[in-house]
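Kindly draft a polypeptide, keeping tokens residue-aligned:

***
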Amino acid sequence: MVTRINGFSGMDIDSMVKSMMTAKRVPLDKLNQDKQLLEWKRESYREMNSKLYDFRTNKLTSKYGVSSAMNMQTAVTSGNTTAVQADASATANGIDMAVSVTQLATKAKVETAGGGKMVPASRTLAEMQMIIDGKDPSKLTEDEKKAYADKTYNFSINGVSFTDSNKKTLFTSDTSIATVVATINSKTDAKVTAKYDELTGKLIINSKSSGKNSEAKLGEDAKDSELLSLFNQKAADKSVFNTADGVNAFAYVNGVKIEKDTNTFSVNGVTLTLLKETTSTVGENVKPTDSGVLDNPLFITTTTDPTKAIETIKGFVEDYNALILTLSKRIGEAKYRDFAPLTDEQKAEMKDSDIEAWTEKAMSGLLKNDDILKSTLSSMRTLITEKLGSLSAMGITTGSYSENGKLYIDEAKLKQALTDNPQGAIDLLQGPQSAATTGLFDKLADTISKSLSSIADRAGTNRFSGELTSSFKEESVMGKQLKEYNKRISTMLDYLENAETRYYNQFSAMETAMNKLNSQSANLLSSFGMS
């Protein structure tokens, strides 16, 4: 290790070495500055990624693109409003309807009688049996508890057995009631859902679907229902359960009989949810007569109200204008080439306010004329231009060329257009129901998706997230460039360290030689009596 001291020659070696190294550090400073610019640029891309993601996912897709956002139809009901709920969709055709319900759709069901005691769902099956037997689990001895232990309970429904990979039942005396319910509900192929009533001890199992084809069919072997028998101890026969087949719903709409396997269905663009029968005489064979089905119907009329659609379109225009303004500013932002990122040495000699002002200029224009952003903006404007005729008819126009495609709304004209032709606006913006075509919102979303992919490939951003703290993927173009910078900087640091060591070694050798020369001179003078 080289000892770095000032020599007897009086020279300031540290200052001299530092001065010599300053020139050699210039290439390193340039590498660090270029790396900093690249990192800033990558952060700028992540910011743009966030704004594009937000516009596509949170605005176009989740907010403006959903059918309810452009729904201008409202169902107005009168009469038996407790029997049927009516919700008009955007495709409601305005036909007035009278709805009577003669039978609700039901699900196939198996229901136990319970144990006659209140048992919390947190209890195990063994503890439930103890409570039904009138015993307190906390007061039983270990020997008394053994009578309830090590028991298993088989169960199968709709041909599905609840067993493990070794064909052993999943339900034992140590299984909690809550776990029993969760296990039954987790078996999707059984197509049933279970619920437990803590007050009565009843276990109720319903088919997931409703209607006459729904099933909650127990296994034919008595052993298949051992689990249910445990919840059926109040019944005279523990092996007999309360079962019911599912039935279809029957309703009359304007006198036309409708049969459905569910209580929710659509007629004339209005979603009907049947809540109860409208007549005292119920069943699938009840017919509309003067004294029967149509005595107490629900009456439905639909009206057009463009208020919600107007708010949707105004919101879209506002968000669209904000996005293109952001893109335009970044593309046209001034770039100050004379303001490179500051080195630590430069910052040490400056005030904080000066550092901030300098850095602001150094970071400006990082995405100036960026090809991805320019392409995104151009594609968005092209999509708007292609539909400008239809948009103009709705009161949506563009500003001057210098405004980069900013949209303006004539609200009175928009309201009239939506009132006159609501479906036309829906087809234009959200697209018709046909899967073959897409609306303006969808096309804009697709364009932005492509831009997000391009930014992700270049900067390593996450195109599936708008988080500004998400990590960058190293295997991107910029990620690889940063790796190369780090490699070059590491090599340069090694070079500078070796150079500095070499300088100190050279000065050390010079000092040693000068000290030796001084010593020889002193000895020579002394030998001549001149000391």
